[in-house]
Amino acid sequence: MRCVINGFKTAVRVTNYLSPARNSIQFERFRLHAVRQFSVESSPACWNCQKKSNLRQNMICSDCGHLQDVDAEINYFDLLSFPTKFSLESQKLTKNFRQLQTIVHPDKFSNKTSREQTNSADWSSLINKAYKTLATPIERGQYLLQLEGEQMPQDNSALNKEFLMAMMERNEEVEDAVDSQTLEDLNAQVVKELEDMAQKLNSLFAAKDIQGVKGTLVEMKYLLSIQNGIKQKQQSLLGS
């Protein structure tokens, strides 16, 4: 790594004697070379060919093509080729997810080494987990908090009394419902509120309002609990 840094410094001194346009071009070429060299040097060696090279799709050795051991610490956004932010395109997320699953599908490794067969199953499981996390607004929000080193509050301190009272009343409405139509109407209200909160989360993350994010996520948990209660009541009415 020291040789890369020293070389980078040398290039800066040399380009000082070039014309501005040529200086810019030469500097950018060297910068890209230095970044490439650093990324290769800092990556783990392939278990098969022992070379340190960039990984295709963060999983496959670009030299020998062998599937690498699962990286349980990989950022889910990086894995699914998205920038690390709350806003994302759900259709593209599903597309990227399916493409990755096609690459690591166990059927493609049935005749490979036992290590690659194990890696295939491990990557498939991790990709599923990453997709489910990013596909759901509340899970995606909590994951982003974790990446920031933040945790969800363990009590109701992030909520105001008015919201808690409204949730108690909503629970009573679910308990008192005697027909499916009433429950469907209640569920439609919850779905709309969850969609609005997802939009609110997008703005809060963009503004780096962590406390606002935490409060909104807790509110979403309450609404999801009510939605689960609605589903249970619907099943109860169907069974009666």
Automatic annotation (TrEMBL):
Residues in J domain copies: 75-147
Highest rank taxon of the organism: Eukaryota
Keyword Cell membrane: no
SUPFAM superfamilies xref list: Chaperone J-domain (SSF46565), HSC20 (HSCB), C-terminal oligomerisation domain (SSF47144)
Keywords per UniProt: Chaperone
Entry's family note: Belongs to the HscB family.
Cited NCBIfam families: hscB
Record's protein name: J domain-containing protein
